[in-house]
Amino acid sequence: MKKPVCLVIGAGAGIGGTVAAKFAREGYHSYLCRRTDQEGLDKLIKNIEKEGGSASGCLVNALDDDSLENLIHSVEKEVGAIEVIVYNLGAQSGMKLLDKTTYKEFEWAWKIASFGLFRVAKVICPIMAERGKGTFLVTSATAAMRGNATQHSHASAMAARRMLCQSLNAEFASKGIHVAHIVIDGAVDAPDTLGKMLGPELFQKLRETKGLDNDGLLVPGEIAKTYFHLSQQHRSAWTHELDLRAFSDLAWWNHATMLDE
Questions:
Q1: Which of 124, 121, 136 shows the shortest CA–CA distance to 182?
Q2: CA atoms within a 13 Å half-sphere pointing along the CA-CB vector of 154
Q3: Residue 224 lies in a domain
Q4: For residue range 17-62, what is the model confidence (pLDDT) as tens digits?
Q5: Which CATH number covers residue 132?
Q6: Residue 238, SS3?
Q7: Which of 88, 137, 183, 226 has the fewest CB atoms lying closer than 10 Å?
């Protein structure tokens, strides 16, 4: 019998790769996708295999026509039935005021955050509905809940992602598909996201002052536990939306965190 498949779209060294590793440890075959860095992708897959897990993957540019659609059909045909799909593509184009935000950046954020999710849902939701089961986990951000002066493109795009998740839930929950919108309300200790935004020197300084044993940065391994828990919830008590943050951060509705995702 083939293992159930967990497809992770946006498998970097932070949340995506760690979630893939968690599902592999729990008996799934994890299929990892990212836009660039074949070497980094291969490293994630090899690390999973070293732990005794099952994994494979490929590079995919979500902006390319039919790329996401073809990916899902290919995994279904060549790997196995997708029981869990994780949409973990970020849409942060930088913290910029209105006059510095270009049309291209605004459109790019929408294409990744909302349209890409819509494209994935158009393919996978009917497949899961026909089976009568499936889990659709969508990584989101503080910007989905609250806009601010430097988040014109990001906040509008992530808010659209949130509303799309609500609409998908309204249509497909009764057909057996668990759609969960996961708000990452704070900075994640991840080299592929926070590390690239801050640069290696500032990232390391932040880890030493706020992260590591201070537990002030969200730890990907702990986040992954929540993702797996959501996939195992009984349908009589599904969670649609939750938020995760470090204990030392105030929630998005009280105060801005150190760095909006």
A1: 136
A2: 22
A3: yes
A4: 999 999 999 999 999 999 999 999 999 999 999 999 999 999 999 9
A5: 3.40.50.720
A6: coil
A7: 226
